[in-house]
Each structure stands twice: as C-alpha cells, then as structure tokens.
Amino acid sequence: MTTDTTPAPAPAPAPAPAPAPADLYRHGLRLLLDKDIDGWVGLWDENGVFEFPFAPDGWPKRLEGKAAVADYMRGYPDHIDLHDFPSVEIHRTTAPQTIVVEMRGVGRLVQTGSPFDMTYIAVVTVADGLITHYRDYWNPLTVLQDPTTVFTGSN
Predict the structure, then answer these.
(1) Euclidean distance between CA atoms 67 and 41, whole angstroms
(2) What is the mean pLDDT of residues 131-147?
(3) Which of 24, 30, 138, 149 could share a disulfide with 19, CB 3.0–4.6 Å?
(4) Where are the alpha helices (DSSP H) in 34-113?
C-alpha cells in the first residue's frame, strides 16, 4: 500500500471585500483625473441610474443603465481636461451604502482653453462594490454663462 504524499491544494483565497462607498468614490475621482473613462464606467452596476436634477433644458436629467452612462461619459476627456479635485468632503449617511459628497473640480475646457471650475454635491449609493445610483447636483450656472460649453459627447 502506498501513501499519497502530494499536499492538498491550497484553498482559494477569500474574495476581497467590496470597497466602502467613500473608497470607491475616491478611486473613481482618480480614474477621472487619469482620463480612464472605461475604468470609471466599470465602477457602475449594470442597472445603475445617473441623475442630474439641476441640468438645464436640453441636457439629460436621467440616465438608466451602465451602457447609457458609458455613452454619456465617452467624450468627457475631449471636452474637459480635468486637473484636480482640490476640495472633496465625503459625508456618511444613516444608510451605510450611501454617501454625500461636496467637491470642486478644476481644469480647462479643451475647445476654448478656458478655465473649468465646477462645484458639485453628489448623493451616491453603492451595492456590492458598484455604483447603483448617482445623483449629481452640478452647478448649471457654469453652462449658462458659456452656452458653447459641452461636457460630454451626448449633448
């Protein structure tokens, strides 16, 4: 009788826990600064909803699904050369999967070279490490002051 001395295979490593909403959001900001739109869209759930409650007339107010978000964001780096988020404050809520973000993004408008300086408040919900709902309260006055401003390819 022979004994098999082959060691048993090591158990598969446990999957990494999903990132906390604030960590996922910060990672998303880094991807935007790196102009990695595909990576940023990769943070979205297939059925995620992106809303813009303050969008001016003619701008999208709601996008449904990851594909719609990808289509909307595709041309972002062609319109805005984002340089920094000099102010980012992330607030936890009573719902652990939801955060409220106050932030400011700066850079330049590619078409004109004009400065880009936008303030935002975002309410973001994450489930299983993916964005499921993003309500973006960006400042429409920036667009109304310069109507030639286009942020995305879908306008």
Answers:
(1) 9
(2) 80
(3) 24
(4) 37-41, 66-73, 76-79
For residue 41, the SS3 value is helix
E runs forming strands in the chain: 44-51, 62-64, 80-92, 98-109, 115-127, 130-138
Spatial separation of the C-alpha atoms in residues 133 and 148, rounded to whole Å: 29
* Structure tokens given for 120: 């935002």
Model confidence pLDDT, tens digit, residues 85-95: 999 999 999 99
71: pLDDT strictly greater than 70: yes
Tell me whether residue 145 is exposed, middle or buried, using C-beta atoms within 10 angstroms of its C-beta: 0 to 12, 13 to 18, 19 or more.
Answer: exposed
User: Higher model confidence: residue 67 or residue 3?
Assistant: 67
Q: Is 53 helix (H, G, I), strand (E, B) or coil?
A: coil
Note the pTM of the prediction, 2 decimals. Answer: 0.83
Region for 35 from its dihedrals, namely left if φ exceeds 0, alpha if ψ lies in -120 to 50, beta otherwise: left
Asked if residue 14 has pLDDT above 80, the reply is no
| pLDDT at residue 18, as a whole number | 83
Pair 136, 51: CB distance under 8 Å: yes
C-alpha–C-alpha distance, residues 141 and 29, integer Å: 22
